[in-house]
Amino acid sequence: MLEIDNNTALVLEGGGMRGVFTCGVLDYLMDNNIQFPYAIGVSAGACNGLSYMSHQRGRGKYSNIDLLAKYKYIGIRPLLKKRGLIDQQLLFHRFPDRILPYNYKAYAENPNRFEMVTTDCLTGLACYWEEKLNEKRIIDIVKASSSLPYACPIIYVDGRPMLDGGITDSIPLLHAFEQGYHKGVVVLTRNRGYRKSDKEVMVPSFIYKNYPRLRVALRNRNKIYNEQLDLVEKLEDEGKIVVIRPEKPIVVGRMETSVKKLTDLYEEGYACAEKVMNR
After folding, report:
1. Paired residues of 114 in beta bridges
2. What is the C-alpha to C-alpha distance for residues 132 and 160, in angstroms, rounded to an integer?
3. What is the pTM of this model?
4. What is the C-alpha to C-alpha distance for residues 86 and 260, in angstroms, rounded to an integer?
5. Per-residue pLDDT for the chain (279 aa), expressed as one digit of tens each?
6. Which of 10, 53, 224, 265 to pair with 25, CA 20 to 30 A apart?
7. Dihedral angle computed from the Cα positions of residues 207, 154, 162 and 198, in that order, rounded to the nearest 10 degrees
8. What secondary structure, in 3-state letters, does the chain show?
C-alpha cells in the first residue's frame, strides 16, 4: 500500500457534481483509516473534504446523491427561489444544521490540517483558508469555495467578496508543496489526457463589471487549468505524486441530476481509490 508520512498532502479537485467520484475515494480512505497530515480542497473538493476531516463516512454521498434525489436542489426551482442554480440554503445551512448535522467537534479535534480555496473577486487571486473553530466562518468559506461563477451569488468571507476557488486554483498542488509537503495524492474528477479548450473565455461586459480582476481570472481560467493538468501528469510520470482519477471519460456533468450516473461515478471513485492505494 502507498506509504503516507508527514510530508504527504491530499489534494482534492472540484468539478461540481463530478465530485461524487471524490466521495467514493474519500469513503474508501475512511473505510481503511487512511489519514493525511494535510489536505486541501477546492469547491466540491472542499465540501467533501470537510466530511472526510470530520470522519463522517457516507456523508458526501448522501449529500450529492440521496439529498439531490429528494430535494432536487439543482435547476430552475432553486434559481427562482434562491437567486442561483443551486439551493445553497439547503446545502450549507439546513443540511449541516438539521438534516445530517456536521460534526464540528470531530473536525476541530482532528489534528490534521485542512485548507479550502476561494477566489477573491477584488484581486482575482486565490485565497487559502484554514478554520476549525468558528462554525459560521467554516460555512462561509466552504460556501464561497463552491459558489460557481454565473450560477451562484457572490459570498462574503470576512467582508471580502468570494467565488469558486476553481476559478484561480483548481488543483492546488503547488500550494501544498509551498506548505512544506513534498509528496502528494491528487484526486481529480476527469480522466487522464482531458484538457479544456485553450481559447480565452469570453466574459460578457455586463457580468461582474465591478470586478475587473475577476473577469481577467475568468478569461484565463482554461489556460491555467490546462497548465496544472500538464504539471500533474508530468509529476505523476516522474513518480513524485500519485493520482486517483476516473479511468475513462465520464458522462456526469457539472450540474448532473441523474441518480444512476452519479451513483456509478461514486462507485468508480471507490474502486479507483482501492486500485491505486494498493498498487
Report:
1. 39
2. 19
3. 0.94
4. 20
5. 678 999 999 999 999 889 999 999 999 999 999 999 999 999 999 999 999 999 999 999 999 999 888 888 887 666 666 556 788 888 899 999 999 999 999 999 999 999 999 999 999 999 999 999 999 999 999 999 999 998 889 999 999 999 999 999 999 999 999 999 999 999 999 999 999 988 888 888 889 999 999 999 999 999 999 999 999 999 999 999 999 999 988 888 777 888 899 999 999 999 999 999 987
6. 224
7. -40
8. CCCCCCCEEEEECCCHHHHHHHHHHHHHHHHCCCCCCEEEEECHHHHHHHHHHCCCCCHHHHHHHHHHHHHCCECHHHHHHHCCCECHHHHHHHHHHHHCCCCHHHHHHCCCEEEEEEEECCCCCEEEECCCCCHHHHHHHHHHHCCCCCCCCCEEECCEEEEEHHHCCCCCHHHHHHCCCCEEEEECCCCCCCCCCCCCCCCCCCCCCCCHHHHHHHHCHHHHHHHHHHHHHHHHHCCCEEEECCCCCCCCCCCCCCHHHHHHHHHHHHHHHHHHHCC
C-alpha cell, 127: 485565497
Length of the chain counted residue by residue: 279
